[in-house]
Amino acid sequence: MPTAADVYSVGFMKSDIARNLLPDPFTDLLAQALNRLKMEFAALPATRSEGGMLSEDIPAMAAVLEETARRMGDNYPYFHPLYAGQMLKPPHPIARAAYAMASWLNPNNHALDGGRASSHMETEAVAEIASMFGWDEHLGHLTSGGTFANLEALWVAGQLAPGKTIIASEQAHYTHARISAVLKLPFQSIAADACGRMNLDALEEALGHGDVGTVVATTGTTALGAVDPLDKILELRSRYGFRLHVDAAYGGYFKLASNLDADATRAFAGIAEADSIVVDPHKHGLQPYGCGCVLFRDPQIGRFYKHDSPYTYFTSAELHLGEISLECSRAGASAVALWTTQRLLPLISGGEFAQGLEHSIQAARALFAKIESDRRFIPGPKPELDILVWAMKAPTMEESSRLSQQVFDRAAKQDLHLALVQLPVAFLRPATGPGCADWPDARDNAKVTCLRSVLMKPEHLAWVDEIWKRLDRAAA
User: Fold this and answer.
1) Most confidently modeled of 256-265, 323-332, 421-430?
2) Do residues 209 and 200 touch, judged by C-beta distance below 8 A?
């Protein structure tokens, strides 16, 4: 029978159930880390039930966790390269271990007395992300995700330009319009070009009205992975004087990649000139959900967050992260996991982390080349990052959409998991033979259901041929 000390130091991770679910090296590393953490508090008097449980609780816990594991089996295999659908990237094993270890203490990064070590780790990890974008000075912190990070960025924008319009591409994340409504700020959607990027002529026309406070540029749209032409948007800023927010929630880490095309390279080079940036470590940063990050170039933005708390901020004269965040309670374990991952995999060009991103770009280009050369498919725009879309060749748009659903279902039966997305027909370019231009039901602004693949795992590059083999069978 395990003792209460076993439960405290290793807990479920030491059980036979966990060893069947996870590789032994992972559980052994976590056990060692938890024992080291226990030693940090060894001077405390012993309690009757360390960790809040007794040894006789173990059988009941094991039974419940086994049932939980069975329930969790009702999921797509997000961790496997044959899952090539939505933006779901498995956390790095060291991020999982660090998060689990930190959860034993359960720090809260709102105030230093709730998470002293994890708050300092957050500050250091966020500074490394800011440095990746070229910022030595900044104000920033982690959030529960990109939505809340964008909320904070647009909230500050509204403080600086009250009542002014927020502008974003029609391919930008839908939450920008929703956030603007929450903040009671006017919002305008700008048309996209045939590659899914913000249309510069439409943007300049909107800017000419003179009531724009902020333009949101997206580096990695959710549907296509398109990169707005940030270099050109910066030229417009020099003439029209708006605030520039870069939503890099999905694509931000590709700043480190060396194999972007020329347009994307110029766009990413301009991120340092933005006024605020959002990036999601829980996407390409190898972190568990939820871990977003918001950055401001001007540290003086902190004045908008200033507030007093009657009980929270008296333990230290140092900055408490709750003093520069709209969120109060935030999981310190997220900061610990991020700091640990970046310690192992630094955010540097040419490093192991950057190479993984480059492999994802290569994988998307390789699969796109196969789709482009196949007469059964109509390709979308050439992928700028690691996302590609394509439609099925068919006499009508309705039939094409039906075939996409059919291929999606057939692929899943072969354990190849893709995604579906509805896109304007203008994004599709015909290959040899009849294409979307010949669809009699393709009205202006009509949308067709397309297949979509996100090849965001580095190992996807080695699996392109197997993915193609299964897609080929599904489309037969």
Assistant:
1) 256-265
2) no
Report CA 216 to chain centroid distance, whole Å: 17
The tokens 């008296």 sit on which residue? 314
CB proximity list for 71: less than 8 A, separation 6 or greater: none
Residue 433: exposed, middle, or buried by beta-carbon count in 10 A (0-12, 13-18, 19+)?
Answer: exposed
Q: How many CB atoms lie within 10 A of CB 88?
A: 17
Report the DSSP pairing between strands 165-169 and 212-218: parallel
CA dihedral sign of residues 46, 47, 50, 56 = positive
pTM over 0.85: yes
Q: Cα–Cα distance between 220 and 148 in angstroms, integer?
A: 18
Give the whole-angstrom CA distance, residue 470 versus residue 476.
10
Show Cβ contacts of residue 240 under 8 Å, excluding neighbours closer than 6 positions.
Answer: 207, 212
Phi, psi of 452 (to 5 degrees): -140, 140
Report the SS3 class of residue 219. Answer: strand
Q: Considering only 184-188, 347-351, 393-397, which range has the smallest mean pLDDT? A: 393-397
Going from the C-alpha of 423 to that of each of 63, 217, 394, the distances in angstroms are 46, 20, 16
Mutual angle of helices 24-40 and 93-105, in 10-degree steps: 30
* Residue 2 pLDDT: 34
Domains of the chain: 1-56 (no CATH), 104-344 (3.40.640.10), 352-474 (3.90.1150.10)
Rounded alpha-carbon distances, angstroms, from residue 191 to 194, 199, 202, 214, 269? 10, 6, 6, 16, 24
Longest dimension (CA), the chain: 79
Residue 192 pairs with which residues in a beta bridge? 198
User: Tell me: the pLDDT tens digits for 385-400?
Assistant: 999 999 999 999 999 9
* H/E element, 402: helix 397-413
Per-residue pLDDT tens for 200-258? Answer: 999 999 999 989 999 999 999 999 999 999 999 999 999 999 999 999 999 999 999 99
CA distance 86 to 34: 33
Q: And the tokens for 287?
A: 């972190």
Query: Which one is predicted more confidently, 424 or 310?
Result: 424
pLDDT at site 316: 56
Tell me 287's DSSP state.
Answer: -
pLDDT at residue 57, as a whole number: 80
Between 1-5, 207-211, 330-334, 374-378, the lowest mean confidence (pLDDT) is in 1-5
> From CA 187, how far away is CA 418, in angstroms rounded?
33
Listed residue (247, 256, 261, 257) closest to 219, CA to CA: 247
